[in-house]
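Progress narrative, work stream C.
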Amino acid sequence: MPIAKDHFADCNAAGSLTETMIEDGMTPTIPKNLQFFRNIHLAWGSVLVGVLLAALYYRVLAKLVTDWWNIPDFSHGFLVPIFAASWYGQSERLFSK
């Protein structure tokens, strides 16, 4: 008989979790629905950090884009984020040795 069955809204998830603990004597694994919530928190945290950085640096970024657009010597600035993203995506493969 599951101990924690009455304390959870989802009785099926609580039942299988506590039955696993009682029958096998093992530490229960995290149910997939809880892992989903961890990923959601990480995603919203990343969005929040991105919005805060954009709010803090919007003047600087606007000036950079204006300079890249109007000054021919700085027009390569539009390519820098693309190459940086590409290099960052390959950095694990490059530095894994």
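Work stream C, second folded protein:
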Amino acid sequence: MDPSPLHQTLEQLHAQLENTPVVDDESRQLLQQLKADIQTVLNEPSAAAHATLRTRLDTAAAHFEDSHSDLALTLKQVIDHLAQV
């Protein structure tokens, strides 16, 4: 798979994360970790970075399923993109 669609999807996800309102500290910390992992993949794509990001995306998708369903859907789409890389 061409990395361009993944790169574009990660950029969109990063922007969405910036605009996601969170109330609790656990959610805020998870979003910060996710944003850092996205930046790592965008700056230095590697198998290890993809694996770390995928794990964090799985955790975040489950965490935000009820409170931020649109975000959870986007996270799952990124997981699908990563599976194709």
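Residues 3-11+26-84 form one domain. No further action is required on this item.
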